[in-house]
UniProtKB/TrEMBL annotation:
It comes from the Bacteria. InterPro entries: Hexapep, Hexapep_transf_CS, Trans_hexapeptide_repeat, Trimer_LpxA-like_sf. SUPFAM superfamilies: Trimeric LpxA-like enzymes. This is N-acetyltransferase.
Length: 194
């Protein structure tokens, strides 16, 4: 298997052919890293997390379990995917809250989507196919396919095509990619490729 892996990889993790794992990376037990994917220096991939084929998880990004990144997902430097909507270290009486009592919910990122550097995605939520989350955004709700999300909390400010270029509205619910000419149709707050 052609894998570069100087980071700390649990023996139960599955690493696909051609994956690159930089130094200081931690890949926890039963995580799966797809073929051709790249984990940058200091990235953290939690237990059971699935990273698809040809993904890029940049330096110091944190992907807590039970996240799912489909194929071709980009995660920018120091982005964080949370997993506990009600985090507490202790109970009301001051006793330590055991890990078994902490609820864990995941972030799902669909094929081709991008999450910018220092963005925070608060589980549970799904980021749609080919969507783009801006650097520094805080995502608190599901993101539609092809949406361009910006701000705190993140709001849709436009649409992006598969190329990553911002789509141009040409009227009557029709959007066009200036880079590729692909045409998209908007209906009921959703965008689909024609």
């Amino acid at each position: 298997m052609n894998v570069t892996a100087p980071g700390e990889v649990d023996p139960s993790a599955v690493i696909g052919a051609g994956a690159h794992i930089a130094d200081l990376v931690q890949v926890r037990e039963y995580a799966r890293i797809g073929p051709g994917s790249m984990l940058g220096r200091g990235a953290y991939v939690g237990p059971g997390v699935v990273v698809g084929r040809n993904c890029i998880v940049q330096e110091y990004a944190v992907v807590y379990e039970p996240a799912l990144l489909e194929d071709g997902v980009f995660v920018g430097a120091a982005a964080v995917f949370t997993n506990n909507p009600h985090p507490r270290a202790i109970n009301g009486d001051g006793s330590a809250r055991p890990a078994s009592e902490r609820s864990t919910l995941g972030v799902t990122v669909r094929t081709g989507a991008s999450v910018g550097a220092h963005a925070v995605c608060l589980a549970p939520l799904t980021i749609g196919r080919w969507a783009m989350v801006a650097a520094g955004a805080i995502v608190t709700a599901n993101v539609p396919d092809f949406a361009l999300m910006v701000g705190v909390p993140a709001e849709r400010v436009g649409w992006v095509g598969r190329s990553g270029a911002t789509l141009e509205h040409v009227g009557d619910g029709l959007w066009v990619c200036p880079a590729t000419g692909e045409r998209y149709r908007q209906h009921d707050g959703q965008l689909t490729l024609e």
